[in-house]
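Lab notebook, bench 4. Continuing the backlog of folding jobs that were queued last week. Each job is logged with the same field layout so the records can be merged later without manual cleanup. Today's entry covers N(4)-bis(aminopropyl)spermidine synthase C-terminal domain-containing protein, a 514-residue chain. Filled in by technician R.K.

JOB TYPE: sequence-to-structure
TARGET: N(4)-bis(aminopropyl)spermidine synthase C-terminal domain-containing protein
LENGTH: 514
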Amino acid sequence: MNTAQHPATPEPIDAVQAMLADAGVLARHLREALAQLAEGALSLDDLIRRTAISRRTVEDLLAAAGPDVEATHETYRLTPQARDRYRQRFALDELRAAEPSGPERLELMRGFIDSGPAPSAALDHVTATPDTVLRRAEWLRDNYDLRGAQVLCLGDHDLTSLALSMVAPSASVTVVDVDERILQHIDAVAAEHGFAIRTMHADLRFGVPPALESSADLVFTDPPYTPEGIGLFATRAAECLAGPNSRLLIAYGYSPRTPALGHKVQQELLRLGMVFEAILPRFHRYFGAQAIGSASDLYVCQPTAHTRKLALRQAPGIYTHGPQSVEALEASAPAAFLEAVGGRVGGPVPSLREPGWSRPIRSKQGAPVFDLRADPGPWLLRMLLACSAERAGFLVDNNHPDITSERAQHALAEVVSAKYRLRFHRSSPDSKHAIVVADLMATPSVAGYLLHRAHGKVGNIWREALITHAEADLTKREAKERVSALAPNAADLELRLIDLPRHRIAEVLRSATR
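JOB STATUS: finished
OUTPUT FIELD FOLLOWS
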């Protein structure tokens, strides 16, 4: 017999392993069925009823196990010879109900929250209670197979990522947030306690980092409680879901006095092709948000085959109040205002350009001026990374955190110093606004090479920079080894510079100047 043409039949336990792998985070239910079969004989009806798995799926599982399942008098069980192998391979003993987190974890979680950044009203931050955050993590652990699962937190002011790392350390957790303070706090706590959490920066109005697309088994988010906010966060989550067995979990609450608002929000999810698999009422509790009873529900949403195709066109305003709210949007600027802006930039400004850094920004004619009046803080740096014009202007609020003090101005200028020289014009063109003018630096350097190519993978761009600027010839291998030795965080080499939190951008650039 030619074994190349007739490969060996896989072992039943390997066929079961493949079925669980295909199920992803939903494999926990299949493991529960195997645990039932390991305990003793059950009828098909009892097995379905105990595990809440569809008949077709149970039949597929029994077929995959084949001779490892003993069928007698219309009952099924794992054979004595197979029982221990299945228990070990699929960690069946771990499925016993885990104890709720004790006072030690609760006190640790309280410390994480108390030492974290204060809530930002402009970003609709309302802090969840420590026991709520732990309850979220425990619910995920007890309902999904998190061994090696990719869990994404879209926004994490509540620090759900830290709680999940405590109760389910085998999960791979990623946090995306617009608030640099949150990312830096999570990085610091994770480093101190040995949590494997990856943090990335993004403003979801401008997209998600490409590394996250189709990557997540579970996405958790507690977004702004507006239809626009829910629609935007759910849309970005849909881009990140890995497949049909992935799930989106949303915290959302509304007052019983305004059911029409709840209806509008639920319509946004339905428009995305989402199915409400579960709605757990009053699951989350908060310090504040008394208009909704300081509580919100947990929505468990299942994507359909159409979800990824149903992209919603979102307006930039998604929050309930503040400079980025729906009501605060400004469509244009008067001619006299633009003329005053041009006086600072050094040339005519016919119009203001919209913000956005999903792709490199190039301009060959004149000095573009970008409208960052709604910037919550991090846009200015991202736009400086994305822009490659000889000169560019950035219109910001006069109280923008990067310009309100000499120290803040110096810190921003230092980060981009290998690319741009910055000039700050406060209270210009009027008392409410300021203009930051950036002029391109002519001196080439490794750090400048990275800053000019912020949309490439850090590892690749850094290697190219070393080869380009090395005093002696370097091979690709030598340059790669040098980058690996210099990199402050090896995982960042696979990401784009523009997607890193600000403090890690600074670390990369400092290392690149050695």
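OBSERVATION: Residues 446-512 form one domain.
SIGNED: R.K.
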